[in-house]
Amino acid sequence: MTVPADAPAPALADRLAIVDTAVAYATALDTRDWPMFESLFTPDAVWEYLAGGERHVGPDQIAGRIRPTIDHLDGTQHVMTNHVVTLDGDTARHTCYYLAQHLKDGKRFLAAGRYEDELRRVEGRWLIAGRVLIGTWAEGDPGILQPAP
């Protein structure tokens, strides 16, 4: 069920916990907290970037893909909005919009799109079991995402 504003308290608590997991993803990226980042995924989680035709499985592979594009930057800011949560017992679907800003040496790359997530409740925590990134637009210099050789 999509969680309406007048849902019972347990459903609202689950919705908040799921949105908190999504927001923690952005916080982990922007603070470069890779242990926290990896802790947000199930061991078999799948992360897909449709525009790049990429698919990575497991927290190590996912972090291994993202970390090199983030660590060398001067700063990032990932903002998420328009969260929609649909609960089904111990599984859930979540979608939201993202706006991701990346800065390096006075250059900027801005990307926007949406995340489509599948989550599972594991030992009382909502974890990302699948995340699909669907880009809708970008501007600036995507070359700054490549680390220097």
UniProtKB/TrEMBL annotation:
<dbReference type="InterPro" id="IPR032710">
    <property type="entry name" value="NTF2-like_dom_sf"/>
</dbReference>
<feature type="domain" description="SnoaL-like">
    <location>
        <begin position="11"/>
        <end position="131"/>
    </location>
</feature>
<dbReference type="Pfam" id="PF13577">
    <property type="entry name" value="SnoaL_4"/>
</dbReference>
<protein>
    <submittedName>
        <fullName>Nuclear transport factor 2 family protein</fullName>
    </submittedName>
</protein>
<dbReference type="InterPro" id="IPR037401">
    <property type="entry name" value="SnoaL-like"/>
</dbReference>
